[in-house]
Write a structure and sequence with these properties.
Layout: H1 15-23, H2 33-43, H3 57-72, E1 75-76, E2 82-91, E3 96-100, E4 103-104, E5 111-113, E6 120-128, H4 137-145, E7 152-156, H5 157-162, H6 168-174, E8 179-184, E9 201-205, E10 215-220, E11 223-237, E12 242-252, H7 268-286, E13 294-301, H8 309-316, E14 325-331, E15 340-344, H9 350-363, E16 369-372, H10 380-384, E17 390-396, H11 417-433
Parallel strand pairs: 6-7, 7-8, 8-9, 12-13, 12-14, 14-17, 15-16
Antiparallel strand pairs: 1-11, 2-11, 3-4, 3-10, 5-9, 6-10, 11-13, 15-17
Helix pairs in contact: 2-7, 3-7
Length: 440
């Protein structure tokens, strides 16, 4: 944990005073949950194309955020609040279909593409993978000599994972198949990849694999984008006591985009909810009466779903020295909360977590706070690995839709959203976002 210089402590209220003094000053406008829902609905709408890399989805979302930043009057380090960078990403912009014995399945709901799936249109017989290859040497040798050209190989998810334990020759032989289908027992979970296989590869819900089909038609249009342009969107409210010291609020605005012409991933909880929280906090501190003592920067990162690429790019190319960051709070998955909130790095930064706990106990903002250790699961991680003190907030309980087509605004309860918002303001103010009361 990085301590503030001794001269800076004069701007921070003692904890015992801050709970009482700041609790009465919580904002009204940003607690308008209609505005919050409008933001989430806009970001998760079909027009944003899943905030990914087909039909300029990520660019549309970034432009929307830049307009919101400008309307709030945030200052910018760069023209248009933009910090551009590029990534390599596999995309699915065109045809996307699966038929089993002539019966069409529904994209997104019944099947999805593997992140690194290649292109192709294949109609052919289905060949179930013999699971004896994992335990019987003779079965393994039979498989390695079996012609796979024109065949669609079907394997269970657990066997797909077990393939890593076999010699590389088995995976190389599977590359000779016309297509691969993996049967998933419970849930389809999409992701992104920076590579592309030679053939189409799908995941299908096992429950949709009825009556032991004999033949399939697989159609996938995949395009590997080697230098796709995207950007972080970054603004700030200047501090009126120490403008060269920063508190930072972050959230990733991107999601998984489209899978074919008709299917997209809304990403309401992940992470339109965290982006809506970032905008609500920016609105609060942008109000003249709430101008902070330290500067507060608001960083909306792109390409988090592709491997924390936006935050990694920022850490490698900071717009102000990382040493100037007094604390960072990352917001991700804030659309639920009936079971409370988890604080990643809470176990590493125990004194700060205890301050957060006392604020929550006094204000009863969320049902429970749980501390977690180090985790490379969101945009706080590149910062904390460079010594920046950082928390990552996410809520628990309620709907469990994640990286799928079911993560939609209408199903998001936002149970703890207002409480997390109020608790975050109290915590930021405690850390120096609000000047101390002038001496009498």
């Amino acid at each position: 944990m990085r301590l503030l210089p001794a001269a800076s402590w004069s701007v921070i209220l003692p904890l015992s005073l801050s709970v009482g003094l700041l609790g009465a000053a919580l904002p009204g406008r940003a607690q308008d949950m209609g505005l919050v829902r409008e933001t989430i609905t806009t970001l998760a709408a079909p027009a944003m194309h899943g905030r990914g890399y087909v039909r300029h989805g990520s660019g549309r979302a970034a432009s929307y955020l830049a307009r919101r930043f400008k309307a709030l009057g945030l200052r910018s380090f760069t023209p248009g609040y933009a910090q551009p960078f590029a990534l390599t990403v596999n995309t699915f912009p065109g045809a996307f279909a699966l038929r089993l014995d002539g019966r069409p399945l529904q994209p997104g709901f019944d099947f999805i593409a593997e992140p690194a799936s290649g292109s192709g249109r294949v109609t052919g017989p289905l060949l179930p993978l013999d699971s004896l290859i994992f335990t019987n040497e003779a079965a393994g040798q039979r498989f390695l000599t079996q012609p796979l050209s024109g065949r669609i190989v079907v394997l269970r998810q657990r066997d797909a994972e077990r393939l890593r334990t076999l010699p590389d020759a088995f995976a190389e032989h599977l590359n000779q198949a016309a297509a691969l289908i993996t049967l998933v027992p419970t849930k389809l979970t999409a992701s992104l990849a920076a590579t592309q296989h030679a053939q189409p590869r799908l995941q299908v819900l096992a429950s949709r694999w009825a009556n032991y089909p004999q033949q399939a038609t697989v159609e996938v249009t995949a395009r590997l984008e080697p230098d796709y342009p995207t950007r972080n969107v970054i603004g700030y409210v200047p501090g009126r006591v120490q403008p060269d010291s920063f508190l930072v609020v972050t959230a990733h605005y991107d999601h998984l985009g489209r899978m074919g012409k008709k299917t997209f991933f809304p990403g309401a909880n992940d992470n339109a909810s965290g982006t809506a929280m970032l905008l609500a906090l920016a609105e609060y501190y942008a109000q003249p009466e709430n101008q902070p003592a330290y500067s507060v920067a608001f960083m909306a990162f792109g390409a988090e779903e592709a491997g924390l690429l936006g935050s990694r790019h920022y850490v490698a190319h900071p717009l102000f020295p990382l040493s100037r960051i007094r604390f960072l709070i990352n917001m991700d998955l804030l659309g639920t909360g009936e079971e409370g909130m988890t604080v990643v790095n809470g176990k590493l930064l125990d004194s700060r977590f205890q301050q957060l706990m006392r604020l929550n106990e006094a204000g009863r903002f969320v049902p429970q706070l749980a501390a977690r250790g180090r985790a490379a699961n969101s945009d706080h991680f590149p910062f904390s690995e460079q010594g920046v003190p950082a928390f990552f907030f996410y809520t628990r309980g309620g709907p469990t839709a994640y990286h799928d087509v079911h993560d939609q605004p209408a199903t998001l309860p936002l149970t703890a959203f207002r409480g997390v918002y109020q608790l975050t303001i109290q915590f930021l103010n405690l850390l120096g976002a609000r000047p101390a009361t002038p001496p009498r």
